[in-house]
Write a structure and sequence with these properties.
Blueprint (H helix, E strand, L loop, with lengths): L1 E2 L1 E6 L4 H6 L8 E2 L4 E3 L7 E3 L2 E3 L5 H18 L3 E6 L6 H5 L16 H19 L4 E13 L2 E4 L7 E2 L1 E4 L3 E4 L5 E2 L3 H21 L8 E13 L5 E12 L13 H28 L12 H5 L9 E8 L6 H14 L3 E2 L5 E4 L2 H18 L6 H17 L1
Parallel strand pairs: 2-6, 2-16, 7-15, 7-16
Antiparallel strand pairs: 1-17, 3-4, 4-5, 8-9, 8-13, 8-14, 9-10, 11-12, 14-15, 15-18
Helix pairs in contact: 2-4, 9-10
This protein binds adenosine-5'-triphosphate.
Protein name: Kinesin-like protein
Subcellular location: Cytoplasm, Cytoskeleton
GO biological process, one term: cytoskeleton organization
């Protein structure tokens, strides 16, 4: 069991805040590498896995969050990184970097997403080389936006709504979403840049701000390993990089039409996220609770990331300004609750081969099992038996 990890990041004062604020002391004070206090709010202490102060560089966020999740994804575990926080708190800066910067390996301001791409493909090259061609990786990227409880494909410039479906084999998936194979960081940056441009264009066309939608960049990472017996072991993981809509309470007063619908839907998905987190915390404390994943597209799509089969990290972003103190307090409370959730990540693998190879592998594993333990099924035996069943079904 792995707890959800939380990285708290306090961004520097913006020029606006410097010009506007009478009180320029930081509303949230880092008291150790893992804890903060809000002096204006009874100095309650909040503890996380890591706290990045106003001078925290992009590299430090990658080192503590990105590196771990990427390497676990390559082992076959699902991984998710969420950026949470009120509008303007630095979510997009953390995930992407300053506006318009999508990659550029030499730019120290580039965000977590380009750094994860770079590390992912470095590791893939290393592992493929070490294995002498026995292991091969395949990565597919898709990029989507959840706005007003609809899922839009950001790699398709038409504003087509994609349905969310569930089946036994694939789990929850977005039907019809574009998936592009990416073979290096440049191809991955390109997917990211095109998606972000489409997000911007459709936001302008539909007269809305991107801070009102959630974006999910999803990488499916497959590894094919040839096993000595002639079989192929397939591992598949999903890596989600999620930039959430601004978490501040939407002002419903004097809001009408599209803005009212937007506000209600942002509230709906973020409050569904909050409720899922609360329910999971109670489940973790031994209570019997139903977790309402289906209450919003966001929580249903990312069900595995919350209390399920995933290594999950939340980067909680805050402004340092006293004028944002109440929102900051609510971000700290949210993040502290989320940190209590326990996920159970497992390697997703499967075996493939022709029938005679699979039968031979099952005989070999059964024999091995008899010689060692005498009973029970080893994982390898279960996978090989499943693969044989599937192979036979495919022939009927
Ligand atoms: N750590 C940081 N260092 C320097 N500048 C930052 C940092 N974090 C955020 N900023 C700047 O603050 C501004 C707001 O950040 P950003 O757009 O990332 O916020 P956001 O939380 O994504 O907002 P929204 O919800 O509207 O998308 C931007 O101009 C960004 O460049």
């Amino acid at each position: 069991m792995d707890n959800i990890q939380v990285f708290l990041r306090i961004r520097p004062f913006s020029d606006d805040e410097r010009a506007r604020e009478r009180d320029q002391s930081c509303a949230v004070r880092r008291v150790s590498e893992t804890s903060v206090q809000l002096p204006g709010q009874k100095s309650e202490t909040f503890t996380f896995d890591h706290v990045g102060d106003t001078d925290c560089p992009q590299e430090a966020v990658f080192e503590s969050v990105g590196r771990r999740v990427v390497s676990r994804c390559l082992e076959g575990y699902n991984g998710t990184i969420f950026a949470y926080g009120q509008t303007g708190s630095g979510k997009t800066y953390t995930m992407q970097g300053p506006a318009g910067l999508f990659g550029g390996q030499d730019d120290p301001h580039r965000g977590l997403i380009p750094r994860c791409f770079e590390y992912l493909f470095d590791l893939i090259a290393e592992k493929e080389m070490e294995s002498n061609g026995k292991v091969q990786y395949l990565c597919k990227a898709s990029y989507m936006e959840i706005y007003n409880e609809n899922i839009y494909d950001l790699l398709d410039s038409t504003t087509r709504v994609c349905p969310l479906r569930e089946d036994i084999k694939k789990g929850v998936f977005v039907d019809g979403i574009t998936e592009e194979t990416v073979a290096d960081p440049l191809e991955a940056y390109d997917v990211f840049r095109r998606g972000a441009n489409n997000r911007h264009v459709s936001a302008t066309a539909m007269n809305r701000e991107s801070s009102r939608s959630h974006s999910v960049l999803m990488l499916v990472i497959q590894s094919l390993t040839s096993v000595d017996t002639g079989l192929t072991e397939i591992r598949e993981s999903r890596f989600n990089l999620v930039d959430l809509a601004g978490s501040e309470r939407q002002k419903m007063a004097n809001t009408t039409g599209i803005r009212l619908k937007e506000a209600a839907n942002i509230n709906k998905s973020l409050s569904a996220l909050g409720k899922v987190i609360n329910a999971l915390v109670e489940v973790g404390a031994g209570k019997n609770r139903h977790v309402h994943y289906r209450d919003s597209k966001l929580t249903f799509l990312l069900r595995d990331s919350l209390g399920g089969n995933s290594i999950t990290c939340i980067i909680a972003n805050t402004s340092p300004a006293v004028s944002n103190e109440i929102e900051t307090l609510s971000t700290l409370r949210f993040a502290q609750r989320a940190k209590l959730i326990k996920n159970k990540a497992v390697v997703n693998h499967d075996m493939q081969g022709d029938v005679s190879q699979l039968q031979a592998e099952i005989r070999r594993l059964k024999l091995e099992l008899q010689q060692t333990r005498g009973d029970g099924l080893s994982n390898e035996l279960v996978y090989a038996t499943d693969a044989l069943k599937k192979s036979n079904e495919g022939k009927q």
